[in-house]
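My hope is that you will study the record closing this message with an eye to the fold:
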Amino acid sequence: MSAHAEPGDLEQQPLQSRVAENYGATLAQPKTAAPKRPSRAIWNFLLAISIAFLCLGAIGIYASRFVPSTEAIQTYYEDVTKVKLHSISYEGWDSKPNSAGFKLDSFASPDGEKDSYKYLKVRAKIGVQFDHDQALSSTTNSTSTLRERSIIRFFSQSVVRTVCFNLNDMKAYNDNETGTQLLGSVHIPQSVCVDLRANTTTELDLPIVVHPNAQNIASVIIKIWRRKFHELNLWSNLNITLSKWGLSFGKVQIPRLDWDDFLNWDQVQSYVDQMHEFLKDPIKVNDFQISDVNEAVKFQIGISYDCPDLLRDILQSQRGCSIPPTSWTVRMPGCQENEPIALQNAVFQTPLVPVDLLLTQSSADINITGQIHGPLPDELLYQVCDSDEENVVTPINLFLKKVFDPTQNVGFEICGLHSGRTKKSIIPERLLDEILPSIAQEINANLTIDSDQLVEQVTVDEMKMKWVQRGWDDKRLEIMGKVNTLVNLPFYNATLSKEEETVSIKKIKGLTKLFHNDVHFVSVPMDVWLNAESEILRSVDLANIQLRVSFDIAGQDVVVVDRLELTRCLNEILVLGQAKVFVEGQLDLMMDTKLGSIVLLGLEGNGTTIIRK
């Protein structure tokens, strides 16, 4: 065989080379692998998960039969929850509801009044405790109910332990004899967390914001002030959101929460009793002035008020605020204590009183003003309470008797009318105006005028004595002269009287005694009213007015008490031409004023006079 290739073989070489190249290229392309079946381990894991979920589902379906309902949980906690209110402190009123987290619209009142956005801020200290044992021991229902409560108890003490809630909505009501009154809306502007474990007390210090219905809450306040607690049936409904670990897990509606369950009415009554006791203390009157103004009689009364410690504690948070001015009418005591006489034509005003004044001074000076238009009621002036042969006692006499007796306080009743406006009041005007007309409070005052200083002097001008023969054996002593009495009016101010004498004395009676050498020897009884003349003696000090009263005693019966001393007096007149005697008078004065005729009984005065021939 030749070593060279055949021509036919040469022709085949390129073809073989290309075929080899194409193959090689074909081999370089990866061949697609057939899909593999999952391994046995994966199949076992998926099967285990499925079986676990099926088991849990089955267990859940089975256990769901024992899960307490929402109503059961709510009833349970209503039974086990114990709330004790330790104290409530007053923190004032505000007109910026947004500052407390409120929406402005939630405070809009239907009448759209100017101060409808006022809300009350208080702080309550409360103790909350859950007595789970009581819930189980008090259960008298079926076994299923007992099982439900046991489940709730277990989860409360061992699983949940603590829970927080937010108060979404709360309204307060009072059930009275006519229906249900809405007292207002209540908000707690913070989350509250409590411990659910048995007999563990959670002490809470809660800020509470109340937007009251002025009219309805005023009626409740008045009943509390009058200690008519039996007429109150206070309750609330509320909506709260529960949360745990910052996550909300449901809302609870409590349709009725009775306040009697946590409010200590004995403590409330004790507080009200203390306030009533403070008002029984007599008010000290420093100044008392009466003046005539046009058709009215004006009163100016200066008093000293000692703020009790209990009230000071309440007012501490109200520095910079004021007690608004108020208007009052007065009911005077009648013949009987339960028959007061209203002064319908009288109005008295208390001024604006800064809270700082009450807190910084031990005794605050307050000036009260008043006006009486027209005369006093006839019942006060003329109603007969008692009478004897000489006098008729009326209600005004009984009142003035206490005024002139330094050992007694005068009592009367004040009735609220309305309040005045002030920028920083401790209470909204609308609420105060709802409360005031229902207030009728007895007041005692140390308003004492020394009756011994009213009649300054009693003298007899041109006094003469002589024996007069009126029959064969009837010899009587006759006294002639004009009795002059100087009466002080320490309470009457003539500054505004425009020179008009609006006070006068038209009638007088009583008993006049004459003394010689300190021996009572003659009496001149005046058992019936005698006509008298009077005039006002004006001085530089118009605030100190005197009234000079004169009347003639000629023709009056004379009683000789000591004939021997009478003889000595007459001999002295005969020898010396005159005799000095001491005059003592106990007088009843009928005073005419713009308030009507007022009788002053038993005024005593004395003086010296000269008896001439």
Q: What stands out?
A: The chain has three domains: 62-272, 282-448, 452-612. Residues 282-448 form one domain. The CA atoms of residues 55 and 61 lie 10 Å apart.
